[in-house]
Amino acid sequence: MSKWPSFRDLIIQRNNTLSRYPFAMLSAALGAVVLVVAIQQRTGLQAHINTNGQSLMALTLGVLIFLIVDLFAERQQVTSSRKLILEMLAFAVIIAYYLLLPKELTYKNYLRFSLFFVTGMLIISYIPFVKSLSGEVNAFWQFNLAITIRFITSLLYSSLLFGGIALALFATDYLFNLNIVSSRLYLQLAIFVFGIANALFFFSGIPKNVADLETKEDYPTILHFFVELVLIPLVFVYLSILYIYGVFILVKMELPKGLVTYLVIIFAGIGMITFLIIYPIRQQKNSSNPKKTRRLQRYHRNFSLSLFPLLALLFWGVGKRIQDYGFTELRYLILVLAVWLTGIHLYLLISKAKNIKFITISLSLVCLLSAFGPWGVFMTSTRSQTHRFKQIMESHRLIKQGVITPNAEATRLSAKEQEDLQSILSFFIKRNGLKYLQPLFVNKLDSLIKKGDSEEQKIIKLYGLMGENVTGEYVTNLIETSTRQFYFQTAYHEPVRDIKGYDYILKFDFSTQKLRKPAQWVHQLDKKEISLKVDHAHNHLLLFEKKDTLASFILNPLFKKLITQVNTKKGEIPNAEMQLIEEGKNYKAKLQFLELKVAQRQNGQSRIQHFKAELMLHFKKPKPKYTNRF
After folding, report:
1. Which residue in 514, 583, 510 sits closest to 543, CA to CA?
2. How does DSSP classify residue 546?
3. 192 with 36: CB under 8 angstroms?
4. Residue of 493, 580, 596, 498 lying closest to 543 (CA atoms)
């Protein structure tokens, strides 16, 4: 039984870990610093990542790449000079990746990063065994079990460390009234703990003498219970549901729902995890419980056989959608994963060796090859959507001499084709990929489409190049419904807020997603019944005393002022610039917005989408009436 590591063990192993994985630890530390700086700048984490996330992505991959180099060098006993050369090559790869990233990250960059990340994780699982791919299978299994348990343990230790420090900060701040601890500080603390301390603890537990693991026969008892009481029952539940659904759609001759592809992949994933966990038991020849061993051996074979009809269902569903709507990145990856699952289960059924290394090696190659090249996920989906776009244009006689030319012979698009065309244009716009459609247009799309245009505005401009006789009323409807979203937030951190002269503060929020409930709030203030109501159609906030209108806050001027300032003012807005004051004979009311989301249409009209606000109220006392007795 392995000894449960202590914090003292972590301190003792720290120097050894830093010497084993110096550049991997450095990458993790720098990545944590990048995130902490992003939070400190108060620019918004998502906005910071979109414009400055290149360094974070490069550093994250740097952790994996340097770890791969160190594990390989350690197992192969590479000399210091050769290890330095490998580390310099790894450094060059990371710098090249960073420099090749665009200034503004898109969906394409995030997806490619995810594929590289998964590839790196899979390579770590087998890099110590690259010189003996057909042997040391038990060592491979024990190594991956060790790093998995270490990863879970490191997360537990990091959580306890963060919780302890956070509680100490809260107690100090609360007891001594320091008012120096904020949610930002807690988030920065979490990044340091989970980014640096967690990495240090995880790296310190990676097995060093990998060769010795081949003779190790320890099998945690908890895995027996986990497999037999959790995973195998879960597999049978999924199997029953999917088989019943398969029979159902065959009887009704319906196309499988899109969700079924994910269910089949989840089912296959759980089954694969179960197979990997029980692998050592299946290989035992002199088991103390031969009945259980035979039962687990039968489980694997039966699982692989039962998966093939579901894979056929998966191929049917994704194949039909590719036929109708072409390739997208998601459909490409699902199809490739389905092909890989089919191949790997055929190998596990036919092969006598059943080498589990082949699972992670083949999957890492699939992920890596999918990330680039003309065969990869991006070029395949781009070619497919370009072909669909060209087909629609040709079928309506819009292409003359190889380019789109509005003409009297062009025919109107049907409603279905309009939706398909908008979907295709949206595909290219979200990926900054309109350059792939440029050969089909005479106009220069770069000069036509501005950087600040919304997606709807870009689509409208592209439709304008095809002629009204083709697009018809569709563009008109698109213009009417096209909106830009604006989000404003007050400076919550302002230490003092002026409430002088007011008796009550009413807090409330509104969202168009909750319009099924009446946008009205009723409060009992002493003997007065006060109600608030949002007039969403006219952008008014109405204040009533019973049925009498006390005040009407007209919001359009405030919206117009905030939207015109959106390009000159960044970040949080002072409270005074997001408030309205109304005063009458018997009352005074101040409306203070804390959060505000507004949608502006192409015609300039604005609509409230969401807000959080406070209403401060003061009711004036009536002046006493004096009578002249003389």
Report:
1. 583
2. T
3. yes
4. 580
Query: Rounded CA gap, 135 and 125, in Å?
Result: 15
Distance of CA 47 to the CA centre of its chain: 14
Question: What CA–CA distance (Å, rounded) separates 507 from 616?
Answer: 9
Tell the residue number behind the tokens 């050894």, with chain if given: 16
Which residues have CB under 8 Å from 367's CB, separation 6+? 115, 116, 118, 119, 122
Cα separation of 572 and 269, whole Å?
A: 45
- For residue 130, give Cα distances in angstroms to 108, 357, 614: 31, 10, 64
Res 241 pLDDT > 60: yes
SS (H, E, C) 343-371: HHHHHHHHCCCCCCHHHHHHHHHHHHHHC
- Whether residue 342 contacts residue 366, with contact meaning beta carbons closer than 8 Å, is answered with no
Q: What letter represents residue 405's amino acid? A: T
Q: Is the pLDDT of residue 44 over 60?
A: no
Q: For residue range 462-487, what is the model confidence (pLDDT) as tens digits?
A: 887 877 666 666 666 665 556 677 88
Could you tell me the pTM of the whole model? 0.76
Q: Which of 54-58, 170-174, 299-303 has the highest mean pLDDT?
A: 54-58
Burial of 275: CB neighbours in 10 Å, binned 0-12, 13-18, 19+: buried
SS3 494: coil
Taking the C-alpha atoms of residue 251 and residue 59, their distance in angstroms, rounded to an integer, is 52
Contact 382, 419 (CB under 8 A): no
Bridge partners (DSSP) listed for residue 524: 529
Q: For residue 584, which of 545, 556, 547, 612 has the smallest C-alpha distance?
A: 545
What is the structure's pLDDT at 630? 44
List the one residue out of 591, 589, 598, 590 whose CA is nearest residue 566: 598
Sorted by sequence, the CB contacts under 8 Å of residue 266 that are 6+ apart come out as 238
